[in-house]
Amino acid sequence: MVLIAGLFGLLIGSFLNVVVWRLPRGESLSHPGSHCPVCDHPIRPYDNIPVVSWLLLRGRCRDCGARISARYPLVELATGVLFGLTAWWVGFSALLPFALWFMAACIALFLIDLEVHRLPNSLTLSTYGVVVAGFALTAALDDQWPSFLRALIGGLALGLVYALLAAFFPRGMGWGDAKLALSLGMVMTWSSWGVLIVGGFGAFVLGAIVGVAAMVVGKAGRKSALPFGPFMIVAALLALGWGQQVADWYTNSLI
């Protein structure tokens, strides 16, 4: 199952490269087909095999020789690995398709925000709907309504925090971050309140570390705007893996 999910992730990663490029620009995700941005020649099916085609072509277009960014195979490979890890973590259950959507959306939103400093409503809001539907179905099948209610409250709480920040500190936080927080908060709280607290606070810690590092190396100034979505996503995924252990350590050692 993990291997199948990983191979499926390679294919989805290829599609995510299209999403990351076209969605922020308002272009269709289906038309036209994949083509070289330099010579505009359609990419042949055998040149569109995830990772493998890029290696065989040595990172260059078959028709014009233009360089193909290494980001494309890296996104495909990362999606495959994360899909495999998601399948291993969630297991074979009704929740798995929803979890894979969530992971794919996180990858796309991470890259889009990093590139254009924007989180499209079409992706943040649809992902929230998918997360709600996935947990509702799981709650109905396994009688986990208390967990569903906790997750729903946690997502709304984190979304409210970010909404207040966006309203009072618009230079540092955007409404897209608040919409993304709904999904991230719900997923983290499905595990526990401790995971939500660690993941929510961790985003600001990561942002501060990267911001200070960027100023030290001269890549940013005190008033430079950094996209916050990537920090939220990374912190949430790390919290899902180790957030409860961190929360327990903090509670037992310091409180």
* % residues in beta strands: under 5%
How would you state the average pLDDT, rounded?
Answer: 91
Strands, count: 0
Largest sheet: none
* Straight-line N-to-C gap: 41 Å
Helix content: over 70%
Ranges where pLDDT stays below 50 over 5 or more residues in a row are none
> Structural class of the helix and strand makeup?
mainly alpha
The helix/strand series, from N terminus to C terminus, equals: HHHHHHHHH
Tally of discrete structural domains = 2
**What Rg do the Cα atoms give?**
20 Å
Cα shape: globular
Question: Topology of this structure?
Answer:
Layout: H1 2-22, H2 52-56, H3 71-90, H4 96-116, H5 121-142, H6 145-168, H7 175-191, H8 193-216, H9 229-254
Helix pairs in contact: 1-3, 1-4, 3-4, 4-5, 5-6, 5-7, 6-7, 7-8, 7-9, 8-9
Could you walk me through the main structural features you see in this protein, from its secondary elements to its overall organization?
By secondary structure, the protein is mainly alpha-helical. The chain is about 70% helix and about 0% strand. The chain folds into two domains: about 1-90, no CATH class; about 95-255, no CATH class.
Throw out a few tags for this protein.
about 260 residues; mainly alpha; 2 domains; about 70% helix; globular
How would you sum up this structure in a few lines?
The chain has helices at residues 2-22, 52-56, 71-90, 96-116, 121-142, 145-168, 175-191, 193-216, 229-254. It is mainly alpha-helical.
